[in-house]
């Protein structure tokens, strides 16, 4: 505890004793009231009556963080660009509660269920924080009996992981999902999701990428053809999913030692998962001796062929790679799966950041049915954009001085060089606010001119209105351009008009500048 | 469980037995694989392998709700208007985690602490969901050692209350806060908060309102002057706060029976709290025999006088009412307090909704200090807009048919009357998306013309591109205006240009329409 606090507490005790003494002595009300006032003033200094001295380390919970204004500006800019793409494709917006009945989440995430944040049982329902936005969407569709929906949902999700926060991974993080639900023709909504991913990544302009695609039915067929027992398909799939982080040898060892796959089967899988290409690969595999005998594999390959054809029509083929090593971790996918990966490290200051996967998704036709008593299916396909990694890259660029952001939008600062101009400044602020001009002023009665101009420069405010006695007497005020330092006197009566002209000119210039 | 599901499970068991039998009999790999494929197909029908039949009632947690696209459109429109006002005043945006260390929230909310949602102890830190955005702001300021900040924060907060959901009160609800932190001159930031409230309510255009103001120091002084013991100021204040819902007689009874105030003191309080007015009332009370002897009361009254003077200068006096019955529930206020109340019921269909309080706030100079080891103070003043009530009113209006909302922004629907035009439609969609035109099409291969046009009408899509074989052969496509049903043939090569012209014309018209 700080010394000043101790001293204050002593004073309060002393003063309290004094008041009690006066009351006991039945002193005059006036005298008592005077001392009570002093006691109150002391208590006000101390803070709230139940204010205890801070005894714990002040921090946000593990794996979480505050977003300061610069980070929020970056975040809002990124999300705005993404939302614009989602809206261009006709997506509607929904939101769901941050927590769900625990039962809604149970049995949806396999091994990762241990990462779910549970709420304390405080009497009532057993709740848990959402782990993603996909299961809540499925619950929403089942609950509201909606059969068709193209929606986006941008919200925070929660995982009790041990994340590498330096790489933009947190326990509380944003997901940014676009999904199409409904019974439609094969691959038509699926390819639109791929198109959306390319538009988002192009809009964000974060470098070259490849959009890997594969098909769960093909993976199933491939495992079948390689002699993996049916009950080990999902766990083998999870192991294949690690190929983007581990070399094949390690993945092979895990398959054999942990998943109980025979070395022969593992080696056969190894042959397939090194393959990638385009439609010609799909055609080749349709003639593969083993795969062609698996109904699942043929279904998957036919799906991939159709998807690649549609990619061609939409003009995104140059960004697509059919890749048999792509598996995706989650259990619930049933058809096409995809993942966008940046193919170049991103330059940040003098260093290079390797980002890797930046968006992913796939088809999940059975998830809604899990919530329906009659198992009624609503087929879905969707994509989730890894915005946290994008935020993280941009924040690094900001820290390295590669980019700068403006955290407010103020166009005009109302200043005065002289004392006793607060009320005049207020009048002008009110006038400008009422005219819709983004305006601020100092909250001090007599701020220094230097501080006021410094505030404008630090905050990128382009214009200042400067009030002075001599000008006001002549019915004039000065407008100062903060960048050029040019000042011009204009009639007080025309101020709004004059400022609007200058703001419009500035905005046009800014747009010219950034083209 | 549905019967079909049972039948399916039986079939899977049967097929599994068959596969095992074939394997045991060492049948040919081909034969075994064929049967395994069938087994896989059956399992795919069943859904995910761990899919259990739904056994619980499908719902969102008590006191929470999903927002559907219509509700989200309303919500986003309201928030956009509010954010525009906050930005006009130079506010920056921050965000904090949805949960805090439990210790951060402890001792901040008085009796209401029982409403905090705790997270389960899963090993690690003890966490709780945020109860408001004010305490997280104070924690943020103390932690980041920031002395000045004008910020807005719009996010959900959590209270285990038993809310009347029909009146727009939930356990999970949005708060929409604007606060100014920093050591400034008296009432200068405070009056800007009042100005912000008036601008927000005017922008939302939800009817006449009055902005009640009072001062915690005046309340303290008033309690003192009426003979309330110092240690009962806060609890008496909580009781006075109920005056907007209860008649004076009941409040008086609570004071006497529950808070231990003498009947005389209660009656004296009763005399004061019925007073309201403007600057003349403040002057009158400064000459009040009892109040003028209380240092606290005089401080509060001087503050109110200054505030009312500034309100005059900002041109908002006609909306302000100095009201001695305004107390505000929370403990942490230390200076001016205020609350905006709608003075007229809102017409919804044939009924009238009484909304009451719609925004409130005040000065809290000691909250940040509670988080600082050295009790360093950062004075703050702020306002919270009751957006949930506003959402609730607008949703009622929507339900009553008083307003309508469009949940998507699509300008062009690409349709075809003939079969086998999917790929042609896709090509055109890609072209329009690449040109930045908000476009959609049916995800079906051969949708019916009627269904396509119906979709446009239901979703307010203004234009359709209609593809036909005979037109395409001549290098033409049709553009249809959905409202007027006019159709026009344009060259396929000029389509983007032609659509952009029409979209711009529509937008101009829409703006004209709403002015």
UniProtKB/TrEMBL annotation, chains A, B:
It catalyses: tRNA(His) + L-histidine + ATP = L-histidyl-tRNA(His) + AMP + diphosphate + H(+). GO terms for cellular component: cytosol; mitochondrion. It comes from the Eukaryota. InterPro entries: aa-tRNA-synth_II, aa-tRNA-synth_II/BPL/LPL, Anticodon-bd, Anticodon-bd_dom_sf, His-tRNA-ligase, HisRS-like_core, HisRS/HisZ, HisRS_anticodon. Residues 38-394 form the Aminoacyl-transfer RNA synthetases class-II family profile domain. One of its GO terms (molecular function) is ATP binding. Gene3D superfamilies: Anticodon-binding domain (3.40.50.800), Bira Bifunctional Protein, Domain 2 (3.30.930.10), S15/NS1, RNA-binding (1.10.287.10). Signal peptide: none annotated. PROSITE patterns: AA_TRNA_LIGASE_II (PS50862), WHEP_TRS_2 (PS51185). Its EC number is 6.1.1.21. One of its GO terms (biological process) is mitochondrial translation. Residues 4-60 form the WHEP-TRS domain. Keywords: Aminoacyl-tRNA synthetase, ATP-binding, Cytoplasm, Ligase, Nucleotide-binding, Protein biosynthesis. HAMAP family: His_tRNA_synth (MF_00127). PANTHER family: HISTIDINE--TRNA LIGASE (PTHR11476:SF7), HISTIDYL-TRNA SYNTHETASE (PTHR11476). Belongs to the class-II aminoacyl-tRNA synthetase family. This is histidine--tRNA ligase. It comes from Parnassius mnemosyne (clouded apollo).
């Amino acid at each position: 505890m700080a010394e000043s606090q101790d001293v204050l507490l002593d004073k309060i005790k002393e003063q309290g004793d004094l008041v009690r003494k006066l009351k006991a002595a039945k002193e005059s009300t006036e005298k008592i009231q005077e001392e009570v006032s002093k006691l109150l003033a002391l208590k006000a200094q101390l803070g709230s009556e139940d204010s205890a001295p801070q005894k714990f380390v002040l921090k946000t919970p593990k794996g979480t963080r505050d977003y300061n204004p610069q980070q929020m500006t970056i975040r809002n800019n990124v999300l705005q660009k993404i939302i614009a793409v989602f809206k261009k494709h006709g997506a509607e917006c929904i939101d769901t509660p941050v927590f769900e009945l625990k039962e809604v989440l149970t049995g949806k995430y396999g091994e990762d269920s241990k990462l779910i944040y549970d709420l304390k049982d405080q009497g009532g329902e057993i709740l848990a924080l959402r782990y993603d936005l996909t299961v809540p969407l499925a619950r929403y569709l089942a609950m509201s009996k909606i059969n068709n929906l193209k929606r986006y949902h941008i919200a925070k999700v929660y995982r009790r992981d041990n994340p590498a926060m330096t790489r933009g991974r947190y326990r509380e993080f944003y997901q940014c999902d676009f999904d199409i639900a409904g019974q439609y023709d094969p691959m038509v909504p699926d390819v639109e999701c791929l198109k959306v991913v390319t538009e988002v990544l192009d809009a964000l302009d974060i470098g070259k990428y490849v959009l890997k695609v594969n098909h769960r039915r093909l993976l199933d067929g491939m495992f079948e053809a390689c002699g993996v027992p049916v009950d080990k398909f999902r766990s083998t799939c999870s192991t294949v999913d690690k190929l983007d982080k581990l070399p094949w040898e390690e993945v092979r060892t895990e398959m054999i030692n942990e998943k109980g796959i025979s070395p022969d089967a593992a080696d056969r899988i190894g042959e397939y998962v090194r393959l990638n290409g385009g439609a010609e690969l799909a055609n080749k595999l349709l003639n593969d001796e083993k795969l062609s005998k698996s109904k699942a594999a043929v279904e998957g390959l036919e799906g991939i062929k159709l998807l690649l054809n549609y990619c061609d029509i939409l003009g995104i083929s140059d960004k697509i790679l059919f890749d048999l090593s792509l598996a995706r971790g989650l259990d619930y996918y049933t058809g096409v799966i995809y993942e966008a990966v940046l193919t170049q490290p991103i330059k940040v200051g003098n260093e290079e950041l390797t980002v890797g996967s930046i968006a992913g998704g796939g088809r999940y036709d059975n998830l809604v049915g899990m919530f329906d008593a009659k198992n009624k299916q609503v087929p879905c396909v969707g994509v989730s954009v890894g915005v946290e990694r994008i935020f993280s890259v941009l924040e690094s660029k900001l820290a390295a001085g590669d980019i700068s952001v403006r955290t407010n939008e103020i166009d005009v600062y109302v200043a005065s060089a002289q004392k006793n101009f607060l009320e005049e400044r207020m009048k002008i602020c009110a006038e400008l606010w009422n005219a819709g001009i983004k305006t601020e002023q100092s909250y001090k009665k007599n701020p220094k001119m230097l501080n006021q101009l410094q505030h404008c420069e630090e905050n990128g405010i382009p214009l200042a209105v400067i009030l002075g006695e001599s000008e006001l007497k002549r019915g004039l005020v000065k407008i100062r351009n903060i960048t050029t330092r040019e000042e011009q006197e204009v009639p007080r009566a025309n101020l709004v008009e004059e400022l609007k002209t200058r703001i419009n000119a500035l905005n046009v210039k800014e747009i010219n500048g950034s083209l």
